[in-house]
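Postdoc handover notes: sequence design on the structure in folder B. Input tokens:
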């Protein structure tokens, strides 16, 4: 049986190989690939609170959009255009937004929790719209001009620098999250998802643990938002939209909640399928995407990654 660090190394190698393949196979679509990586970070952060902790939320884009606007405002208003500094600002503000959102959303349970999360995303959206002096309101925040990475690698029109920058961020965060979910704290959060009453009876603070995970999740989503601001050099209200939150949840279910690999697979499949289908049939692409989702939910309830792993285990077990 492989050790955990060997599985992590294999995961990093797979991401690296896929990144190199994407660079050479789709040189004209690097901007789209970078956008997919930014959304991957959002879905990974959602997986932390929904897949690992069992918290139902439809407002997670609030953390992503907060990181995007914070990085953009830092660049346009305060002249902080160093890319790593912008990402750090996105992570910090995303963590703060995660703390605020977590305190509010965790006050409810079940449907009340979902309603609170929807209220949170609408409040963040409206706040960004009203603060048009800093955010640009409905026109969006433009004029973001990040400096070259380490003063050497300038962001080019083809998106090559942004793509490599995004891949490095994704691998770094993926490794950190793998360590997190295997740690005693990560195991505690899994226990809370399965039986919070028993965990509470053992003396652990369920609510405090969930808030800690919400803060970590906010930092990851904030990095994704800041990456999106750095790569596209514009931030719009769509980054704080309810649609963005709902699509992130769909991607997570599609890949398989409760698995970091599932979050990555779900994001790639959904966004790439949406891109291809919308280009092939701009009038009925939503119908085709809906049919895919229905098929996955009916025939692969554990998600694409979760079902593939289950089938592989069954196959290996039958041969022993």
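Designed sequence:
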């Amino acid at each position: 049986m492989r050790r955990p660090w060997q599985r992590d190394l294999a995961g990093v190698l797979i991401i690296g190989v896929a990144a190199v393949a994407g660079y050479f196979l789709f040189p004209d679509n690097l901007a789209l690939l970078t956008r997919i990586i930014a959304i991957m970070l959002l879905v990974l952060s959602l997986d932390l609170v929904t897949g690992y902790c069992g918290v139902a939320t439809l407002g997670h884009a609030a953390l992503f959009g907060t990181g995007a606007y914070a990085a953009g405002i830092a660049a346009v208003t305060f002249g902080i255009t160093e890319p790593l500094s912008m990402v750090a600002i996105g992570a910090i503000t995303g963590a703060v937004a995660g703390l605020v959102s977590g305190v509010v959303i965790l006050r409810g349970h079940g449907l009340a929790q979902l309603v609170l999360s929807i209220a949170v995303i609408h409040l963040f959206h409206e706040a960004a719209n009203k603060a048009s002096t800093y955010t640009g309101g409905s026109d969006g925040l433009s004029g973001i001009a990040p400096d070259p990475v380490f003063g050497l690698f300038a962001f080019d029109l083809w998106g090559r620098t942004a793509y490599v920058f995004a891949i490095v961020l994704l691998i770094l965060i993926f490794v950190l999250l793998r360590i997190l979910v295997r740690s005693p704290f990560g195991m505690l959060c899994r226990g809370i998802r399965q039986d919070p009453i028993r965990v509470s009876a053992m003396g652990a603070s369920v609510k405090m643990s969930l808030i800690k995970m919400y803060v970590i999740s906010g930092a990851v989503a904030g990095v994704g938002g800041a990456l999106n601001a750095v790569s596209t050099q514009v931030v719009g209200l769509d980054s704080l939209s309810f649609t963005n939150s709902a699509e992130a949840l769909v991607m997570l279910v599609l890949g398989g909640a409760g698995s970091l690999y599932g979050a990555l697979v779900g994001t790639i499949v959904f966004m790439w399928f949406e891109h291809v289908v919308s280009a092939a049939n701009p009038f009925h692409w939503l119908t085709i995407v809906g049919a895919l989702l229905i098929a996955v939910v009916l025939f692969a309830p554990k998600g694409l990654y979760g079902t593939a792993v289950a089938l592989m285990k069954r196959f290996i077990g039958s041969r022993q």
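Context for whoever picks this up: The mean pLDDT is 90. Don't rerun without checking with the PI first.
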